[in-house]
């Protein structure tokens, strides 16, 4: 699981930061999932190492322009390129009507299937590898945060050891790979877990923007390997954050601390904190790290690989 930041500014783009969009690349299945799609997102993808042809799912937090104005253009380009098989889009009520209206008035017809899913808190997608849930955030309009959970995987099966034990290959190997206990024809009982390496713990990724500090964000971020959280304002501008229902750097850090996450990545920064101003982005980072030390700041085209954790007690050094 690899994260690429395509836009890290709030409200409007700047010379160095585009508006909101984050890509989650799943190399094991050659898929690309997108979280929000501000204006210019398709240009950002073209400037990155990502492949639009792998785009399969888009998750929209809310219907403010800096999170959706790039959606129609991206979808239209995917159709013209002809290399996208299907796109499922998840978001709040009104998203489908927005896309239908834009398609109708621009006379855009897609050459591939698009399915819009109106989300409600809870599980919104699940397959054999991943579960995606969403939860309510606290913003000026209906807004959702998302949580992607990778399912645990059995450790690597030791084929050579199985052969040394003279276990016949075939369906039995499949059961042993899943950690099951099997009885052989000669009466021996084999515990599959003893032939497998440490269980690979599924990674957890949470995306929370736009929101002021709220319990919903904490719940989505609980025990996450990575939390991407907006930090529009500095702590000094907390009153403005409460008025506009956005987060400060300290609110993002508090969410990460209470949720027990491993890594906090802040994004969605107000352009008011550009270099040379009284408060700069480095000050927001300092504020956040005072509460949650394991904090970094996102910038456009930053790539972050979510590390995999192994089952505790596996004997690994870490």
From TrEMBL:
Active site: 66
Top-level EC class: hydrolase
Cofactor-binding details, from the entry: Binds 2 Zn(2+) ions.
Domain Metallo-beta-lactamase: from-to ranges: 202-269
Catalytic activity: Endonucleolytic cleavage of RNA, removing extra 3' nucleotides from tRNA precursor, generating 3' termini of tRNAs. A 3'-hydroxy group is left at the tRNA terminus and a 5'-phosphoryl group is left at the trailer molecule
Cofactor(s) this protein requires: Zn(2+)
Key words of the record: Endonuclease, Hydrolase, Metal-binding, Nuclease, tRNA processing, Zinc
GO function terms (MF aspect): 3'-tRNA processing endoribonuclease activity; identical protein binding; zinc ion binding
Residues noted as binding Zn(2+) 1 in the record, renumbered to the chain: 62, 64, 139, 210
Keyword hit for Zinc: yes
CDD domains tied to this protein: RNaseZ_ZiPD-like_MBL-fold
Residues reported in the UniProt entry to bind Zn(2+) 2: 66-67, 210, 268
Protein EC: 3.1.26.11
Physiological role: Zinc phosphodiesterase, which displays some tRNA 3'-processing endonuclease activity. Probably involved in tRNA maturation, by removing a 3'-trailer from precursor tRNA.
Record text on subunit structure and interactions: Homodimer.
Family: Belongs to the RNase Z family.
Name of the protein described by the UniProt record: Ribonuclease Z
Upper classification of the organism: Bacteria, Bacillati, Cyanobacteriota, Cyanophyceae, Nostocales
């Amino acid at each position: 699981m690899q994260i690429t930041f395509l836009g890290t500014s709030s409200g409007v783009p700047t010379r160095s930061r585009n508006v909101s969009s984050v890509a989650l690349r799943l190399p094991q299945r050659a898929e690309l999932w997108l979280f929000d799609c501000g204006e210019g997102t398709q240009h950002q993808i073209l400037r990155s190492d990502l492949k639009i042809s792998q785009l399969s799912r888009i998750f929209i937090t809310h219907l403010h322009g800096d999170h959706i104005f790039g959606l129609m253009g991206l979808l239209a380009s995917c159709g013209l390129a002809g290399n996208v098989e299907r796109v499922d889009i998840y978001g709040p009520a009104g998203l489908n009507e927005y896309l239908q209206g834009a398609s109708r008035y621009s006379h855009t017809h897609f050459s591939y299937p698009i399915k819009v899913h109106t989300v409600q808190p809870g599980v919104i997608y699940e397959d054999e590898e991943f579960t995606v849930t969403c939860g309510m955030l606290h913003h000026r309009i209906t807004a959702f945060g998302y949580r992607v959970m990778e399912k645990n995987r059995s450790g690597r099966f030791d084929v050579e050891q199985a052969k040394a034990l003279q276990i016949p290959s075939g369906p039995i190997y499949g059961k042993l790979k899943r950690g099951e206990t099997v009885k052989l024809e000669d009466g021996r009982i084999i515990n599959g877990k003893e032939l497998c390496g440490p269980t690979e713990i599924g990674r957890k990724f949470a995306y929370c923007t736009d929101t002021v500090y709220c319990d919903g964000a904490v719940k989505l971020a609980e025990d996450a390997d990575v939390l991407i959280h907006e930090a529009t304002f500095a702590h000094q501008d907390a009153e403005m954050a409460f008025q506009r229902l956005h987060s400060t750097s300290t609110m993002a850090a508090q969410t990460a601390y209470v949720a027990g996450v491993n890594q906090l990545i802040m994004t969605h920064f107000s352009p008011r904190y550009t270099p040379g101003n009284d408060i700069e982005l480095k000050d927001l980072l300092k504020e956040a790290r005072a509460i949650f030390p394991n904090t970094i700041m996102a910038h456009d085209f930053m790539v972050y690989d979510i590390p995999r954790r192994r089952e505790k007690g596996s004997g690994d050094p870490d």
